[in-house]
Structure formats: structure tokens, C-alpha cells
Design brief:
Strand order of the largest sheet: 1-2
Number of helices: 41
Structural class: mainly alpha
Oligomer: single chain
Low-confidence stretches: none
Shape: globular
Length: about 750
């Protein structure tokens, strides 16, 4: 079967992350019979490195698209019969860098200069700025056109796409079809977008269009608005129509269209950047007359964690909705506030309860979900775990029973890893994640971010570290593509850092901590997690024996203590780090006191997000003192809790410090099936392991064997037979290899391994 080709021109104009994500998915699973050609001005945010490593990417870049000296000479002297000298050709080549659009314009100008000396003078006075050259040459090309062509070019330059119908509507010239054909025949930078060149659609070269629009605004300012008004009347696409309405200064019509676009985005729970920038460009009086537009701006900044930026927009919208008696608007404003205000949850919960009681009939499923979510976060803040469990189940049930496309997304946005410690344990949330992922479409990228993140938290707390790593890095990559999602960023960052500590990947921890700290300083929603991230950093130093640096972090935590005092979980973090430091300095009495105080607080806090379990640290302390009975008592008590919750992976958060206790527990026959894999993961690296260059990761000898067999093209079954292991074991090794090499496929892993000299 001959291949089909999908051509995507001007891909650089795409700004919707959902399209990038969909195309990445398509490229990763491209059928053998399909080829994709992408034309763009710069690299798109796709998985180019992965495709390049697989040998599935052919790239034609600017050097290949530019004329060299010989091609430039042939273009001028053979195609246009200009008989330029070698020096003149070299000058043109140097000034344009082989830029074909510039050379084409130059040719159109040079053929009008009959005297060779005048032509030579013209050539040597060119400068090398492409846009300046283009404007200069386009000016001369335009001047050589008949008046009716000039008029047509200027008036139609505002159209992103040209057809006889919309050209006629904008120019009000019945000869539009003839003029459009004449422009095309004269090669005036008009590109056909469809095989039928008689009917179009066409599009001007971007630089030519920009030049014409600048001329139009400069020479005919009185026509600029009227032309855009006519264009808006015949344009179908909402974003193009919006551009014309704004240029025509038809503010009310633009505001009405923005309300429609924003409503669609609100249901998706992610507002497009173009909607926001256009709202912000409207006159203040128009903004004030359309409170929904104020709300859309507030939602946009709120979901990205910029609370202070969102606040005035939200306050104005809320006031307008109350003044107008708009109940639905008040509910949406309350929803936006619930997603940003973590200090007044009691007030927000009470306001939501009132809405549920008085206007419950107009609440959409996503509104009910955010209400239940607000109850959950309020319950966490007050350590009311029964209340949390009740509202967690109610919110998930609403989401799963709803046909509202925004309901699952809203539920995913609300669910945090802390909720995995509810009274019913992990299982109900794991089922919700599975059903949500089954419902997610390729364009539901926010839902995918949330489900991948939740799956990562679940797998980590279950002790399935490789799967956790894969899921959380998928979520993190998507977050980077869309520019982040406030608290979701913080939860994902927690797990990436926790995994690094579990893996003893301290350099990875430091690098990621450093890159994320910039965001934590600018994203207001991260303030509530500041103490937690500091605790993880202090613990990282402690695990490496860098006690003095851990003490510096403790001082930072105490310096940032709020005037009202620590939250319960922040006090637990401070006590934990202080206990670790006291343990290292030999003050075991103080260490024990701090850790027991932390353990008492943990009975209320329950979760280990940006935390560790104090009683496991107590077990470590007792182990250091050779008080093994007490160490195992602590470990056994915690294990019973973790097994009931389905969260045995909490043990892994201790890192290598818990290894002596696990060793002793296994000698005593305590939970060998559970603890042996954890011990294998946490204990110091085998000296026979193979370090990965420029990384603190390594391959085990067995993983190296599997990698070498992968390089031969062996299947899992063949590898299992060769190494006398099960296919399931081989699959686990392959998964770890892909994770460590940051590869998506076996082929990519082998390619990277070859470049790193591992095979």
C-alpha cells in the first residue's frame, strides 16, 4: 500500500497545547502507511528528540531551503536573464543569506532596472536585514502594479485566507475573482492552499501581508476599521473573527464573541491565552459591562497559581454578579475563589452550602464537584478525615455519573495526593483514575495531566516505583507544555523529589529542586507548600550526611514561620527535621522527644505528602541504638496501618536510612514478601552496577544483560529463555531501563545506550 501524506503548513501558528499533545500521540503511534510533513518557522513542542533517536525524523532546515552561490546565479542569470557578475551574485547571496523570498523580490525589482551600472549600484546599497530588504523591495514591486491591483492588494491584506467570496465582501468589488487571479498569475507572493487554484483559498506570504497592512494603516487609516468590519461579517472561525472585530474596534461585538469562547473554555476548565489577551486589550468600560469576561481572566490566572493577579478581576466580577443578581455567575466566581483561596476555606464552604440549599437546581455537575472538593480540602486543614472521605466519595460519584465533559476534569483538578489517606484507602481513587483515563480523549490534556499524576501518587504509595516514575514524568511533561497548573505542579514536584530520594539520586534531586524553586517564588499557590519543600531538602542533606546544611534548612524553615504559628503539618515537618539533626549530632534524647511529638501530630495529619512517617524515623533511631525490639515494634505498628490503607510505599520515603531496620526485620521473618523488594530498592548500590554518564542513575548487571539482548532485537520471550527468568521479570527490567534512559520505546533505549557507550 502506497503511503498517505498529511501536510501541516505554518504549524508555528498553533498555540493550543491540546493540538501539540494530540500530534505527539499521533507521531508516537503513526501507522506504517502514513507520513506527516510539518512546515514551521521554528521547532514545535513535539517529541522531536525521541523521533530523531528512532530514525523516524527527516529534517529540512533553513540551510537546505536557502540558495547557495550557484543556485543564486542560476536564478538570476538563467531564470531572469539578468547577466549579473559573480561579485554581484555574491553580494546578493551574502545580503539575503540565500533567502528565496528576498531573492524573488530582488529579481522582480532588478528586471525593471535596464541599465547594468544602475543595477550594480542598487545591489551594493542593500542592507542585510531581511525584513528591511523585504519592505524596500515590496515597496518597489507594489509601485509597479496597476492601480486596481494595488488597491486590491492593500484591501485584502487583512484576510488570513483569500477566496473570491471574502475578497468581494471586503473590497466590495465585483471584479474580485479577476483581480485575485491576476495577483496569482503575477506571482505576487500569493500561495494557494488547495489544489483548485481558481477558487482558492489563497494566502499572502506573511512578510508581504505584514508590509501591505502597514502600508494600508499608514496611507488609508480611515479604511482600516471598515475593512475589518466587513471581514468580520464573512469570517466563520471564532479566533479570526475576533481579530477582525478588535481591529475594527467593534468592542461590544468582540465582547459578545469572547463570552461565547470563554464559556466553552470554562466548561473545559482551561481558558485559552488568546481569550485572555483580547479581554485585557478591551477598553475598561467594555470589560466592566461584561462581568463574565472579568471572571474568565480571573480563572485563567487562578488556575496557574497567580492569585494576586487574579484577585482584582475576581473581585470585580463577583461584585457585578451580585449587583445583577446573576446566580450562575456568583457560583462560577465562588468556584474560582475556591481554587485560589486556601486561607478562608470555612467561609467558602459556608457560601457553597448556601448555594446548594438555595439554588441547587442550577448547579452543574462540575459545580457540585468543586463544592465537594472544597469540603475535602477544608476537612484536610482541620484533620476531619471522616468528613473528607464522605465528600470524596460524593464528588467522584458525581463525576463518573455525569456526561458533562468538564466534570471529570474538575474532579481530577481537585484530587490531591493527601486524599489517598482517606478512611477508605487508595482503592476507590484508583478505580476513579482508571475509569477517567478510559474516558479521556486525546484532546482532554488537563484530565490526562491529572490522571497521570494521580496514578503516579497511587503507584508510589503502593511501592510500585517504576510505574510511579513513568506516570509522574508523563504528567510533568504535559504540565511543561501548557505552562503549569498551580497546585498540580506542586504535587507533581513532590513526587519527583520523593522518587529521587528513594533512588538515592541526590544530584537529580538538587537539579530539580533548583529549577523548581524559581516557580515556587513566583507562583502564589506554592506558598502553602514552602515548608514541605524545605523539609525534603533538609532530609536530602541529612541522608547524605550533610548535617550542617540540614541545620541551615531548619533555620530557614523557622525563619519563615508565619506570625500565627505553624500549621499542624508544618510543625510536624519542623520536628522531624530537628529530630534527624539531633540524631546525627548524638543528642538521642532530644531526637526521641522531637520524633515522639511529631508522631503525635501525625495521628491527626495522617498523610505523608512533603512529609515522612515519624514512627519509621523513630524505628531508625532505635536501630542506631541497637534497641531492635523497639525498632521492630514501631515498624510493625506502622506496617499494619499502611497495609490497611494500601500505602506500604510510605516506607520508601524513608530512603536508605531505614535499610538497617528492614534488614533486621527480615531476619526476624517480619513481612518478607512486602519488605524484601523495598530493601532491594533502598540498599546501597552494588559495586558491579554500571553508572549512566552525566547522571546519578545506574544499570544493574541484569539490566545491562537485558539491554544488550534488546540491542539484538530479541523479544521478551527470547530474553526470558536466554536468562532463565519469566517474561514478567523481563518486562519489569525493560520498564526500568526505559525509565533510567528516559526513553519511550525499546528502540529509543537502544539508540541512547549506544550513544552513551553502554553497548
Amino acid at each position: 500500500q502506497s503511503p498517505s501524506v498529511l501536510i501541516l503548513d505554518d504549524y508555528h501558528t498553533i498555540i493550543d497545547p491540546a493540538i501539540h499533545q494530540f500530534l505527539t500521540y499521533l507521531l508516537d503511534y503513526l501507522p506504517p502507511s502514513l507520513r506527516v510533513v510539518i512546515v514551521t518557522r521554528y521547532d514545535p513542542p513535539l517529541s522531536l528528540a525521541r523521533l530523531r533517536a528512532r530514525g523516524q525524523l527527516a529534517e529540512i532546515r533553513l540551510p537546505q531551503l536557502s540558495f547557495d552561490d550557484d543556485e543564486t546565479a542560476a536564478f538570476f542569470n538563467q531564470r531572469h536573464q539578468l547577466q549579473l557578475t559573480g561579485e554581484e551574485v555574491s553580494t546578493l547571496q551574502r545580503q539575503t543569506e540565500g533567502w528565496i523570498a528576498g531573492l524573488q523580490l530582488l529579481a522582480m525589482v532588478l528586471v525593471t532596472i535596464k541599465d547594468s551600472q544602475a543595477r550594480s549600484t542598487y545591489i551594493h546599497h542593500l542592507n542585510s536585514a531581511n525584513r528591511a530588504i523585504f519592505a524596500l523591495l515590496a515597496e518597489e514591486v507594489l509601485a509597479h502594479q496597476p492601480p486596481d491591483i494595488q488597491d486590491f492588494l492593500l484591501k485584502t491584506s487583512i484576510l488570513p485566507e483569500l477566496t473570491p467570496a471574502n475578497c468581494r465582501a471586503v473590497t466590495q468589488n465585483n471584479a474580485a475573482l479577476r483581480l485575485l487571479a491576476a495577483v496569482y498569475e503575477r506571482n505576487l507572493f500569493l500561495n494557494v492552499l488547495a489544489p483548485d487554484a481558481l477558487n482558492g483559498p489563497f494566502r499572502y506570504h506573511d512578510l508581504f501581508s505584514s508590509f501591505l497592512q502597514e502600508r494600508l494603516k499608514a496611507d488609508r487609516p480611515e479604511q482600516w476599521r471598515d475593512l475589518h468590519r466587513r471581514a468580520a461579517q464573512v469570517t466563520v472561525g471564532s479566533e479570526q473573527k475576533l481579530m477582525h472585530l478588535m481591529s475594527a474596534e467593534l468592542w461590544d461585538e468582540a465582547a459578545d464573541l469572547l463570552e461565547q469562547m470563554g464559556q466553552v473554555d470554562t466548561e473545559r476548565r482551561f481558558t485559552r491565552r488568546i481569550v485572555i489577551t483580547t479581554i485585557e486589550a478591551l477598553p475598561k468600560s467594555i470589560q466592566q459591562a461584561h462581568p463574565w469576561l472579568l471572571l474568565y481572566v480571573a480563572q485563567y490566572y487562578a488556575v496557574r497559581g497567580y492569585v494576586e493577579t487574579a484577585a482584582p478581576w475576581l473581585a470585580q466580577a463577583t461584585a457585578c454578579f451580585h449587583e445583577q443578581g446573576d446566580e450562575l455567575g456568583q457560583i462560577e466566581a465562588l468556584t474560582a475563589r475556591a481554587m485560589t483561596d486556601t486561607l478562608n476555606t470555612a467561609e467558602i464552604v459556608q457560601a457553597f452550602r448556601q448555594k446548594v440549599d438555595t439554588v441547587g437546581d442550577i448547579l452543574r455537575p462540575d459545580h457540585r464537584i468543586i463544592y465537594h472538593g472544597t469540603e475535602q480540602w477544608h476537612a484536610i486543614a482541620n484533620q476531619e478525615w471522616s468528613t473528607l472521605t464522605r465528600h470524596l466519595q460524593a464528588g467522584m460519584q458525581v463525576a463518573l455519573q455525569s456526561s458533562d465533559p468538564g466534570a471529570l476534569t474538575m474532579a481530577g483538578l481537585i484530587l490531591g495526593p493527601q486524599m489517598l489517606f482517606n478512611h477508605d484507602g487508595i482503592a476507590p481513587i484508583e478505580e476513579f483514575v482508571w475509569r477517567s483515563s478510559q474516558s479521556a480523549q486525546p484532546t482532554d490534556w488537563i484530565l490526562q495531566i491529572c490522571t497521570h499524576a494521580l496514578l503516579g501518587y497511587i503507584r508510589f504509595l503502593q511501592g510500585r516505583v517504576d510505574e510511579a516514575e513513568q506516570a509522574i514524568h508523563r504528567s510533568h511533561r504535559l504540565l511543561q507544555e501548557i505552562g503549569g497548573l498551580a497546585w498540580i505542579d506542586d504535587h507533581v514536584s513532590w513526587l519527583i523529589l520523593a522518587l529521587a530520594l528513594t533512588r538515592r539520586a541526590y544530584r537529580t534531586f538538587d537539579d530539580f529542586f533548583t529549577t523548581q524553586s524559581v516557580r515556587w517564588e513566583t507562583q502564589e499557590t506554592s506558598a502553602g507548600y514552602h515548608q514541605g519543600f524545605l523539609y525534603l531538602r533538609g532530609r536530602s542533606f541529612w541522608l547524605q550526611g550533610r548535617t550542617a546544611e540540614a541545620q541551615t534548612v531548619l533555620a530557614q524553615m523557622e525563619a519563615h514561620r508565619p506570625p500565627s504559628g505553624y500549621k499542624t503539618e508544618d510543625e510536624e515537618r519542623r520536628l522531624l527535621l530537628a529530630g534527624l539533626i539531633a540524631m546525627d549530632t548524638g543528642d538521642t534524647g532530644t531526637a526521641k522527644r522531637y520524633l515522639r511529638q511529631a508522631a503525635a501530630l501525625h495521628e491527626r495529619v495522617r498523610h505523608t505528602v512533603l512529609l515522612t512517617h515519624p514512627r519509621l524515623t523513630l524505628a531508625t533511631l532505635y536501630g542506631r541504638q541497637n534497641r531492635w525490639d523497639e525498632a521492630l515494634d514501631e515498624l510493625h505498628a506502622v506496617l499494619e496501618q499502611l497495609k490497611a490503607q494500601g500505602t506500604p510505599g510510605v516506607i520508601l520515603q524513608e530512603g536508605e536510612s531505614i535499610v538497617p531496620v528492614l534488614n533486621h526485620a527480615l531476619k526476624q521473618g517480619l513481612e518478607p514478601e512486602l519488605l524484601q523488594p523495598f530493601l532491594t530498592m533502598l540498599q546501597p548500590v552494588d559495586t558491579q552496577t554500571i553508572p549512566l554518564p552525566n547522571s546519578d542513575r545506574y544499570l544493574t548487571p541484569r539490566e545491562s544483560e537485558v539491554l544488550h539482548l534488546l540491542a539484538t532485537g530479541a523479544t521478551n520471550r527470547a530474553i526470558a529463555a536466554e536468562l532463565y527468568v519469566t517474561e514478567r521479570t523481563v518486562k519489569a527490567h525493560v520498564t526500568r531501563i526505559l525509565t533510567k534512559l528516559d526513553a519511550a520505546t525499546r528502540t529509543e533505549a537502544v539508540t541512547k545506550a549506544g550513544r552513551l557507550g553502554l553497548i
